[in-house]
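for the recovery benchmark. tokens below, seq after
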């Protein structure tokens, strides 16, 4: 145990709000916009200088499928689709209905990769912020939420740190979209981490983009090598044998972008690091950047179409796939996803399959063996932490098992959960009940009216897909 010291200090109350959303990633954006649209004064706090979370700071993309596994039904609509349609209108995204499985935008992957959404991360920073402001959301950027404030079991606000120093934000309801359950965990709500057997989490990846790639040569090479189980697997194997490829990956994750000659790279891999420990995050950033340099050399030497490529940029932060998951009123399991279980309190549907990058080895990715249903449901109770009041959680840290998280962690699902959480927060204030006591049938009716999708013929609580 580290040595501790006691701190006593006075901090100014910077703001008092109805709904406070922590984190402006996919879940937080959808939560804030939805909350404000339902009349709650909504403040969203984000540690970076722009919104988007992994959409922007993480350089993560494309958005994985928002459709059913078979690609036949669009499951995630609402705020997510609104953002994409606005970006598409200005040429900075392609609607997923136009992106088939196996396309270069989908990294040439077919299983689970039908109808992904390519987008320009710079556009997200502007368009998503505009959507927040238009909805009446107050944005507070460059601000890290450090510590929740409690009155008994009720979370009443947070201490934040910024260039303005330490300040307090008070709120009637807090929606924790930090992806690490920062508020819930520090408020003492129970959390779980990693695999049941050893607590290990999925590895981290520093995304980067390369420019001046010969797109046609890349696409032709992949088409001509259908036997490579992962794109460029045989080239990776040869390079590894020659001692030129030390990263624990079996192929290269390459995703074409909207700009010709520019590809996103999802290939670095940093294992056995804890995304909630700043020492581990520091070590992971350094290792991630070392791997980028190694990969750039490998690309130029060995990858067809990459001989003259340059490093365009790296993400502002290493991407953290997995940290804490809250223990909620319900914990979503792999079996729920495989059986496509109906939940009376369904608030989102998803079709992305289980995608667990190995915490220890070079394998992993979308898993065709763990066959999830064509569409599976996420219930409201996964967003409601046990033991703490006036708090909801949305996005990567909702209540699920390690295996189920491997599927629901993608960005469209985070938007859908965020929309539900933000709507629930605002409705709970209108109805004068705690989020735990909210009438879920009413929440579902409002979500449907707001363009979310809860299944064909869904007509209220008790009816599934
Ligand atoms: C390497 C990697 C590759 C991935 N590939 C894909 C992919 O191709 N497609 C896909 O759809 N999904 C992919 N994912 C999954 C997806 O990016 C995340 O699971 C998803 O972004 C989760 O959304 P979120 O809103 O919960 O969290 P995030 O996107 O992480 O957003 C959380 C936000 O909260 C902010 N924040 C955190 N803590 C605090 C705090 N204490 N105070 C203030 N602000 C805070 C962060 O800065 C961030 O903006 C990938 C993830 C990783 C890491």
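predicted aa per position
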């Amino acid at each position: 145990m580290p040595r501790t010291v006691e701190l006593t200090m006075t901090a100014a109350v910077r703001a008092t709000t109805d709904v406070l959303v922590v984190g402006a990633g996919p879940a937080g954006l959808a939560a804030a916009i939805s909350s404000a649209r339902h009349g709650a004064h909504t403040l969203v706090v984000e540690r970076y200088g722009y919104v988007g979370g992994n959409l922007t700071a993480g350089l993560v993309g494309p958005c994985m499928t928002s459709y059913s596994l078979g690609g036949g039904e669009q499951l995630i609509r609402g705020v997510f689709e609104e953002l994409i349609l606005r970006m598409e209108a200005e040429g900075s995204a392609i609607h997923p209905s136009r992106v088939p499985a196996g396309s270069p935008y989908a990294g040439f992957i077919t299983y689970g990769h039908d109808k992904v959404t390519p987008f320009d991360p710079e556009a997200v920073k502007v368009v998503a912020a505009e959507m927040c402001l238009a909805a009446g959301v107050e944005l507070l950027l460059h601000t890290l939420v450090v510590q929740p404030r409690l009155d008994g079991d009720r979370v009443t606000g947070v201490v934040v740190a910024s260039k303005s120093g330490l300040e307090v934000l008070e709120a009637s309801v807090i929606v924790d979209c930090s992806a690490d359950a920062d508020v819930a965990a520090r408020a003492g709500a129970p959390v779980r981490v990693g695999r049941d057997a050893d607590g290990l989490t999925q590895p981290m990846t520093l995304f980067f983009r390369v420019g001046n790639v010969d797109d046609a040569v890349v696409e032709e090479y992949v088409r001509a090598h259908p036997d490579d189980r992962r794109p460029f697997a045989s080239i990776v194997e040869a390079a590894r044998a020659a001692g030129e490829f030390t990263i624990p990956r079996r192929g290269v994750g390459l995703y074409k972008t909207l700009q010709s000659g520019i590809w996103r790279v999802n290939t670095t891999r940093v294992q056995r690091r804890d995304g909630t420990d700043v020492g581990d995050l520091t070590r992971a950033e350094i290792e991630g950047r070392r791997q980028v340099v190694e990969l750039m050399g490998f690309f130029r030497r060995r990858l067809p179409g990459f001989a003259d490529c340059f490093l365009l940029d790296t993400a502002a932060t290493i991407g953290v796939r997995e940290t804490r998951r809250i223990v909620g009123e319900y914990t979503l399991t792999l079996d729920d996803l495989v059986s496509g279980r109906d939940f009376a309190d369904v608030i989102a549907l998803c079709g992305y399959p289980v995608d667990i990058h190995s915490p220890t080895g070079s394998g992993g990715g979308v898993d065709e063996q763990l066959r999830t249903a064509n569409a599976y449901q996420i219930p409201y109770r996964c967003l409601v932490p046990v033991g703490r009041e006036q708090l909801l959680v949305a996005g990567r840290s909702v209540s699920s098992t390690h295996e189920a998280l491997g599927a629901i962690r993608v960005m469209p699902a985070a938007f859908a959960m965020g929309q539900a959480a933000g709507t629930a927060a605002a409705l709970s204030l209108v109805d004068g009940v705690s989020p735990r006591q909210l009438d879920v049938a009413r929440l579902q009716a409002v979500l449907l009216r707001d363009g979310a999708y809860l299944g064909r013929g869904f007509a209220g609580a008790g009816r599934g897909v």
